[in-house]
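To illustrate the input format used throughout this study, we show a single complete record. The first block contains the structure-token representation of the backbone; no residue identities are included at this stage. The design step must infer an amino acid for every position from geometry alone.
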């Protein structure tokens, strides 16, 4: 056998190996993006100061195959046909949620919301009597959650759209990765 034939076979074998590796990488990337993690871009100011407009974050899509959303989780869900929202879970199925005098109550018990402290101070400084307007008790039906943005004065959430079906939840926000200086775990 000549050197040209041997060299041609080696090149074809190497090309085949590269093709397989590329194919496997594409399939793995598709599976990871579809079932495990996905990037998400924050649009708007409804989650300020926890999350900021145009920040990019990673959403864990697999977590809710293992457990249900729980209060405090920051989630992404399909709010409209072409638009996803990012909000904080406030209550789950069976809970009764209400706000009185700027205080959140779940099943009649006041709930601390430390992530709102800065907002409440700013609202008071600007002469706003309340950061979260009162709303009457809302019973959350089975298969649903109640969500609100951290920037309560600028958030279109369950107070307006009602409880959100758990089936529309994409996943839980895990960490921001852009801008680079703002990398952090979301809580």
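Output of the design step:
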């Amino acid at each position: 056998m000549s050197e040209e034939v041997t060299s041609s076979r080696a090149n074809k074998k190497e090309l085949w190996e590269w093709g397989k590796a590329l194919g496997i990488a594409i399939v793995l990337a598709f599976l990871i993006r579809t079932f495990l993690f996905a990037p998400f871009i924050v649009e708007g100011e409804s989650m300020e100061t926890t999350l900021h407009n145009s920040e990019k974050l990673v959403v864990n899509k697999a977590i809710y195959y293992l457990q249900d959303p729980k209060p405090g989780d920051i989630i992404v869900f399909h709010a409209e046909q072409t638009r996803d929202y990012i909000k904080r879970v406030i209550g789950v199925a069976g809970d009764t949620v209400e706000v009185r005098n700027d205080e959140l109550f779940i099943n009649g018990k006041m709930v601390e919301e430390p992530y709102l402290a800065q907002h409440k101070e700013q609202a008071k400084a600007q002469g706003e009597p309340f950061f979260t307007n009162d709303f009457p008790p809302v019973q959350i039906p089975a298969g649903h959650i109640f969500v609100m943005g951290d920037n309560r004065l600028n958030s279109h959430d369950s107070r307006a759209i009602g409880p959100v079906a758990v089936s529309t939840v994409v996943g839980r926000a895990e960490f921001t990765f852009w801008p680079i200086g703002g990398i952090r775990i979301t809580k």
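Structural context for interpreting the output: The mean pLDDT is 86. DSSP finds four helices and twelve strands in the chain.
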